[in-house]
Amino acid sequence: MENEKDKFTIAARLKSFKYAFNGLKHFFVVEHNARIHLVAAAFAIGLSFYLNISSLEWIAILAVIVVVFVAEIFNSCMEKLSDVVSPEVNPQIKIVKDMAAAAVLMAAILALAVGAIIFLPKLF
Ligand SMILES: Nc1ncnc2c1ncn2[C@@H]1O[C@H](COP(=O)(O)OP(=O)(O)OP(=O)(O)O)[C@@H](O)[C@H]1O
């Protein structure tokens, strides 16, 4: 039988959004790396306006910005979860944290490559 909690309600969906925005607020207010990504994103968006890039180029720039933020949010989640699960030094936690950081590195490399492909020919 369907439980009260499983029922679809607009109020429950709105609450989920509230929690998601709460997570976003925490990320931008508390996590220091978020500020670095925010500055880089603002720079890329400013440069995109200045260089009057095409619609497809905008899609690529916005997509890589979001990919970097998503990777960094999950990386921060992994760090927090790891610190709760195992606050002491643990070789498996090291691998978990290193791999989460590797995901951010991959996203950042992609963002740099896409930025270079779009911006460099317009600048030089
Ligand atoms: N509990 C642990 N056991 C083993 N190694 C750890 C542990 N905690 C952290 N490390 C190692 O230290 C590195 C840095 O971990 P930490 O949680 O400090 O992330 P950080 O990258 O410094 O955090 P931030 O992204 O907030 O600057 C990890 O990638 C991992 O190699």
Protein architecture, described:
- With 124 residues, the chain is mostly helical.
- The protein has a single domain, classed as Helix Hairpins (Orthogonal Bundle), CATH 1.10.287.3610.
- The chain is built from 4 helices and no strands.
- The chain has helices at 10-30, 32-50, 55-85, 91-123.
- The longest helix has 33 residues, at 91-123.
- Residues 33, 79, 86, 89-90, 93-94, 97-98, 101 line the site of adenosine-5'-triphosphate.
Hetero groups: adenosine-5'-triphosphate
Question: How far apart lie the N and C ends?
Answer: 66 Å
The overall number of domains is 1
**Assembly classification:** single chain
CATH class type: Mainly Alpha
As a percent range, the share of helical residues equals: over 70%
**DSSP strand tally:** 0
Shape: flat
**Which spans have pLDDT < 50 for at least 5 consecutive residues?**
none
- Element-by-element helix/strand order: HHHH
Please name the CATH architecture: Orthogonal Bundle
Pfam families: DAGK_prokar
GO biological process, one term: phospholipid biosynthetic process
GO cellular component, one term: plasma membrane
Family: Belongs to the bacterial diacylglycerol kinase family.
